[in-house]
Amino acid sequence: MNMETVPELQHRTVLLDEAVDALAIQDARASGIYVDGTFGRGGHSRKILERLGAEGRLIAFDKDPQAIQQAESITDPRFEVVHGSFASLEEVLAGRGIAQVDGVLLDLGISSPQVDDAARGFSFRADGPLDMRMDTTRGMSAAEWLATETEQNIEKVIRDYGEERFAFQIAKAIVAGRAVRPISSTRQLAEIVAHAVKTREKGKDPATRTFQAIRIYINQELAELEVGLNGAFRRLAPAGRMVVISFHSLEDRIVKRFMASKANVPQPDRRLPIRAKDLPQPEMKLLSKLKPSAAEVAANPRARSAVMRVAERCTGAAQ
Ligand SMILES: C[S@@+](CC[C@H](N)C(=O)[O-])C[C@H]1O[C@@H](n2cnc3c(N)ncnc32)[C@H](O)[C@@H]1O
Known about the structure:
The protein is α/β, with parallel strands linked by helices. It folds into two domains: 198 residues, Rossmann fold (3-Layer(aba) Sandwich), CATH 3.40.50.150; 98 residues, DNA polymerase, domain 1, CATH 1.10.150. Helices cover 39% and strands 15% of the residues. It has 13 helices and seven strands. The protein has a seven-stranded mixed sheet, sandwiched between helices. The N and C termini lie far apart (47 Å). The relative contact order is 0.13. The structure holds S-adenosylmethionine.
């Protein structure tokens, strides 16, 4: 579809002030360098630019060409947008001769325009081609993947990334369904899943978990998050802030564990009891964990599952 014919869909930024406040862009830090790893429709980026001084700099990333098209309308000389994953943050910064940044923001997952445009194939509510790629310029669509993947791997993805207890039945139904007719639309997949799911969760469409799982797999969301967190950490200046907003427990678990490991906070799965005096110096300080207010959730129901975590690079940490 010609992108110029797509009506512009809106994204309501979650935890807008809270996330930008957490970057602490003030005093000397207003002339720092910041990264918005998930530009979306630029709600956070625009607010960061409002707070930045004349010498400050903001580098934004997004995998989605439609987000990039929006970002390119920002003509501010302090701003630059990169079409690519935040997993490439380190090499992109290195390519610009930037050794350290003062803050990194990641507002994970998909934007409302991606969900609301049926042609992107993310939604089980509207019929559209079964695509689900954030970056439509590369990689395999969900339809292509479901056409070729083994039943065992489909089951594993749906179980691991959707935490779906009917993963076995759904994978079986997908493989039986594709033998009759290629699964090329969101509605077709949603119907196959609905028949395979035996008991319904209250208030939840039976396709919710499967769509989430396939989307995470197609976009390699969790693997890229791990790489992005590590890259952001290595590039953070002392006292630099890392602010991450997650929208489901799999993401939040990764963020929580990453920050906790850098802050020497004991992990439930750490086997050996380690005496405090034997622990290495913490490299990060945990600053806050926050959820949207009831008023924000009432105004924007998509904010309901958001969790924001903030950590700061310790000043004494080795670079
Ligand atoms: C929740 S939206 C961000 C909204 C944004 N903060 C705003 O205020 O408009 C998430 C965006 O991140 C992008 N995205 C998700 N994972 C990404 C990744 N690994 N690298 C770059 N962009 C990513 C998606 O394409 C989407 O546009």
